[in-house]
TrEMBL record:
Protein name: MFS transporter
Biased composition regions of type Low complexity, renumbered to the chain: 418-429
Principal localisation: membrane
Region ranges (Disordered): 413-441
Transmembrane feature ranges: 15-40, 52-72, 151-175, 181-201, 222-243, 263-285, 297-315, 321-344, 356-378, 384-405
InterPro entries associated with the record: MFS, MFS_dom, MFS_trans_sf
Keyword terms of this UniProt record: Cell membrane, Membrane, Transmembrane, Transmembrane helix
Keyword Transmembrane among record annotations: yes
Domain of life assignment: Bacteria
All residue ranges annotated as the Major facilitator superfamily (MFS) profile domain in the record: 230-441
Composition-biased stretches (Basic and acidic residues): 430-441
Amino acid sequence: MTEPAATAAPRRSPLVALLTAQYLSAFGNAITVVTVPLYVLHTTGSTATTGLAGFIGALPLIFAGAVGGVLVDRFGGRRLSVLSDFAAGILVLLVPLLDATVGLPIPLLLALLFARTVVATPATAARMALLKPVIEGAGARLESVNSWYQAAPRLGLVAGAPLAGVLIAATGSAVGMYVDAATFLVAAALVAFAVPVAESAGPRGDGTAGPGFFGQLREGAALVRTMPVIGAMTAFVVVTNFLDDAFTPLFLPVYAQDVLHSSAAMGWFLGAVGIGAIVGTFLYGPASRNILSNRRYTLFGCFAVVAVLRMSLYLEPGAVGVTVICFLVGVAGGPLNPMLSTVMLERVPEELRGRVFGLTGAMALTSAPLGVLTAGWLVDLAGLRVPMLCFSLVYLVLIAVSWRWPALRAMDERPGSADPVDAPAPDADPGTRLDEGASAR
């Protein structure tokens, strides 16, 4: 009777460490979002260079996720997570150190920011590949831990970005770069020393070498194509990302400026969306036991609510009304990421997780810039209200078209019948410390 109790706590510690690393990474990501443009602007005095630095820093996201996913499966999630975070921390650390000592020419600065994104991106797929065995070792539910895990980028941005602004205002942008580097290095140390996950013996997990790099990349792509539920969810997310990423960076700023004539309202809108998303994400864990137990209905229901809420902006409510709508949009969208990642963790074989998470993440990112560009062109052509209404209506069309899609019905086919009890570990520590959030981690 006493032996299980004696072994329960050590099995929870890897989960606590992995979640803490995720929250640290999320906080560091928020520091990056605020610090890097301010640092470049302060150092160069050029807005053009600042914009170029942002472009160069984001460019590797298009390919580094897919390539990094292959590396995760070749070398193991734990090893690549540690190496990725450690290398990124060193590269970030070099920026203020070189600037303060021998000098930092603009080409070298841009090269360091590019390299930082390249090496940091695989850590996202690596930690996801580690998540399921760590959850199983702790005896926790996938849904519950995923709600904690997926809340990290949103909480990091909402809480970390204002803290980063205060830190930079008080101490300067160089200190922000040092803090960013420290979050990488501490996250690497946590995974290295506290997440003792056994690695596969080879790319196939059986000691054999398996195919080469491009062969493994093709294997991951083939699984996305041939496993209907993964392919359907990916296609759904690609379309909805096209619609979603026009809302915050384009529709909301234009609404604040042209309808409310208040740029300051944009801050309230962003804060409301972020806080609502955190609430919705955290609520998914307990709600997934009953109210949101049907995943397909949850997928369609959440997007239907988001569509109706955004359609209401056509009526041009005031600042308070839009803020409430933004909060409710965040709450409605909160359960989606933990739910979709739970399905993928259940379905994707361990030896392919890195590639599949890397590929699907990269595919989802490709549609987002196109959505912003399309929305901007339509707003210039037809004004704000009609494009905003049309983008919302597409959600409802997508739901109607996908309603009888057999592949999405498989979301509710749960492999195995075990339903372990929630472990209290996630409540113990990670929430006190502040990542793919919006950048490369």
